[in-house]
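Worked Example 4.2. Consider the chain below.
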Amino acid sequence: MIRTNLKKFTGSVFGALLIVAFALPTGTAVAQQQPPTNNWYKVCSKQEDNDICNVQFQSVASTGQLLTAVSLLEIKGTINGRKFQVTVPSGRVIPPGIKMQIDAGKELTIPYAICFPQRCVAEVLLDDTLVGLLKGGGELTLTSINFQGKPNPIKVTLNGFTAAFDGEPLKQDELEARQRQLQEELRKKAEEQRRRLQEEQNKAKETAN
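Applying the procedure from the previous section yields the following structure tokens:
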């Protein structure tokens, strides 16, 4: 019965959760890594007879491309299950999985579960031991291997994780305000990059003349 429930959890519910968790613009170009835009927050929803909560963190480049996302998913109801998921851009080497390290602790491997055209998701079962480690940690390092065979470490602050995990989920208007704020931050970063590029082009023209 448990195995059947987990299969359902990773099937229809899994797909719906991805839409909620990663509803962000994505760029097709390889983006330069930027500091994480968001901090930890919780979103909950109800689907049929199931209550679904997602404690998540998203690191987004100035282009809007998702660099790394972390989700702690929990579903209660007719289906019960808990998942710890890490999402990275596609173009990853699959066999090594994603390496996870909390502070200077032991490095763990999270195997990939599924890949989409723009994203790959690695996951393991979420248990209280992992939650406790995250609550007691200061920084989470997630390392995937890109298509060139090079490690691509992303550091995620754990500051605010406990408050998000134990606290109340965001209300719909709070979530919408957060998304608007993110879009505005991305717009400002993109505008700043365009301005710098234009200045560099102008300097190059002046030097050539």
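The first strand starts at residue 41 and ends at 47. The two ends are 75 Å apart (CA to CA). Compare this with Example 4.1 before moving on.
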